Amino acid sequence: MPGGSANTRFAEVRHFDTVTSTNSVAAELARPGLVVVADHQSAGQGRLGRTWEAPPGSSLLASVVLDVSWVWDARPQLATLALALAASDACSAVAGIRPTLKWPNDLLVEDGKVGGILAEAVPGAGVIVAGIGLNVRWGDATPPPPGTSLDALGAGVAPTALLPALLELLEVRLDQDPDALLDDYRARCTTLGQAVRVEAAGRDDVEGTAVDVTPDGHLLVQDETGEVHTVVAGDVVHVRPG
Ligand code: BTN
């Protein structure tokens, strides 16, 4: 895929051996339709200021640049949900494993995290950069808890083998009606119906049952008094009774 992904808006795919972070490179270039892929990141970024570590060649590390007009009615969080669904679809198509989704951005197989998404608006550039880290072929190495990898789950695919399917399936998701996208996300989101604790810096934890995802992609959590809290960002812990 030297140029781009045929029949998609992703007209330019740039592959690097090593970068600091594919999200940072994509944000610097900020061209809608650009995809930045790397074998290794020296400063990979996770959500909530965390780092994202992966040995060279072990993972699909990719960031796409989305024009904000591609993300329905200025609902930027839907970019995370669309990429999460597309990544789960691509794992299913290429590796025969379909991860479920933990709100907002984790791809899970059983309780193991096989991938995560970090989407960020680039101020003044009119674009959103959405990056995915997918643990594909870790060999004898083990992703940090609660991580797992596709090879540990029995799928022997190469990280880059997932990219064409990911871009094609993301194209499908970006063309989808947002209500249908949200319904598909809800159906694959294992957070819904669960007892959860939401942790966020500088705020009291919210505990309750995850009851829905809003049209903006936010999580609704109903506490034991019946009050419903809207969670825009935070760390969700699936709490198991007992
Ligand atoms: C998470 O915390 O779960 C999100 C992790 C996102 C990691 C990916 S790897 C490719 C892209 N570049 C980065 O620096 N981060 C994202």
Describe the structure.
The protein is built from 4 helices and 12 strands, in the order E-H-E-E-H-E-E-E-E-H-H-E-E-E-E-E. The longest helix is centred in the middle third of the chain and has 19 residues, at 77-95. The radius of gyration is 17 Å and the shape is globular. The strands form 2 sheets. A 7-stranded mixed sheet has the order 1-2-3-7-6-5-4, sandwiched between helices. Strands 11-10-9-8-12 form a 5-stranded antiparallel sheet, with no helix packed on it. The N and C termini lie far apart (50 Å). It is of the alpha+beta class and 242 residues long. The structure holds biotin. Residues 21-23, 41, 44-47, 50, 52, 61, 63, 105-106, 116-118, 131-133 line the site of biotin (BTN).
